[in-house]
Amino acid sequence: MSGAAPLSPEAxxxxxxxxxxxxxxxxxxxxxxQLYQLRDKGLIEAISRGLYRLSDLPPxxxxxxxxxxxxxxxxxxxxxxxxxxxxITTQIPHxxxxxxxxxxxxxxxxxxxxxxxxxxxxxxxxxxxxxxVDDTPIRIYSPEKTLADCFKFRNKIGMEVALEALQLYRxxxxxxxxxxxxYAKLCRVEQIMRPYLEAGL
Length: 201
Prior knowledge:
Distance between the termini: 75 Å
Order of helices and strands: HEHHEEHEHEEHEEHHHHH
Shape: elongated
Number of helices: 11
Structural class: alpha+beta
């Protein structure tokens, strides 16, 4: 008695939510030749280098974040990109800002443009929220952790960006000053942040 017929390459994609990295496709039994055939026929499209998605799926709401989260699943969305996610900035990120552990390699990707930051072990691991963009898991720092990070990296992103974020956070979230100060201590910016928190801007 013969077993079930193997799935077609397109069916393998559908069984995996319609999206696969090159390595995942090869491990699932799709050859490079079959992958390129699907692409050339217009059945799949490359979202970024090495990441493919069925063309008939609904449009991705945020292809840049999906591409980066798929390529670097352990990285964490941070700084201006995290501010934009939480709606506490008027800045439009021209790069995807992601944090990696201090010993990790900084991201290298052709598209979308990515700015990587190395965080110490304690600062990297704390304050992470797990979200999903178009069924792709993504790790993002909480609003309170992001505020502390912005003060820590104020020389890179601008003090005005950090202060605006704090102001918008007060307007749009239930303020948690004690938690912000915990992260400020972790990021070694407590002395810088405390006057702004106490003054209420």
